[in-house]
Amino acid sequence: MRGNEASASTMLSPFFVQGSTARKKFGEFSPRTNSHPSPMSILDLPAVNACLNGLSTIFLTAGYVLIRRKNQTAHRNCMVSAFVTSTLFLICYLTYHCYLGFVLHKGPTVFREPLWFRPIYLTILLSHTALAIVIVPMVLMTLNRAIKQRFELHKKIARWTWPLWMYVSVTGVVIYLLLYQIFPQR
Q1: How many domains, the chain?
Q2: What is the pLDDT of residue 65?
Q3: 140-181 pLDDT tens trace
Q4: Beta-carbon neighbour count of residue 176 at 10 Å?
Q5: Domain for residue 21, yes or no?
Q6: Is residue 182 classed exposed, middle or buried when 0-12, 13-18 and 19+ CB atoms within 10 A define those classes?
Q7: Tens of pLDDT along 87-135?
Q8: Is the dihedral of CA 134, 142, 54, 37 positive or negative?
Q9: Residue predicted with more confidence, 101 or 30
Q10: Does 36 reside within a domain?
Q11: How far is Cα 9 from Cα 43, in angstroms, rounded to an integer?
Q12: What DSSP letter does each residue of the chain carry, written as one string?
């Protein structure tokens, strides 16, 4: 590996530990026909999803800072990037869970241990899931108003959309860390 690739690989390696563990548990999925193992499988998607949520958080934060500084073009670019990364997240999330359900005949990972932390985890998960559903139409409406240059209406809904979207993005990363890194479920 080149220097940049090695450092990026080292930085992201904790996120991909889950995927390699899952491959041992569920078996390798590789669309390749040769005998070389795939460097990444569909079981790595939870880590990819966490990275996409993290990127969304960065774009949302930058977009907020930029609009406060009256830099509308940079703000627009960051918010479109946040929308794209969130859309990619949704595609990867649905792909992973459909694969688990329809191909492996497994349900989602259940948080069982430690028992004392389960109510905290479930509270975070429930609020994350409910708000993730709520923000989809809000994000679409906010973006639509910006595209149509109806900025007063855009600002009114963005005051609600931004913090909810930020919460969903941040808790998405937190949920991944809790479920796969801090308290890996077996």
Answers
A1: 1
A2: 98
A3: 999 999 999 999 999 999 999 999 999 999 999 999 999 999
A4: 21
A5: no
A6: exposed
A7: 999 999 999 999 998 898 888 888 999 999 999 999 999 999 999 999 9
A8: positive
A9: 101
A10: no
A11: 17
A12: --HHHHHHHHHHHHHHHHHHHHHHHH------SSSSPPSS-GGGHHHHHHHHHHHHHHHHHHHHHHHHTT-HHHHHHHHHHHHHHHHHHHHHHHHHHHIIIIIS--------SSGGGHHHHHHHHHHHHHHHHHHHHHHHHHHHHHHTT-HHHHHHHHHHHHHHHHHHHHHHHHHHIIIIIIS---
The distance of Cα 6 from the centroid of its chain, to the nearest Å, equals: 23
Residue 19 domain-assigned (yes or no): no
Cis peptide before 114 (omega within 30 of 0): yes
Q: Contact at 8 Å (CB) between 96 and 106?
A: no
Is the CB of residue 164 less than 8 Å from the CB of residue 134?
A: yes
pTM of the model: 0.78
Q: Which range of residues forms the domain containing residue 168?
A: 42-182
Helix axes 151-176, 118-147, angle to 10 degrees: 150
pLDDT above 80 (res 26): no
Amino acid at 165: W
**159 falls within a domain:** yes
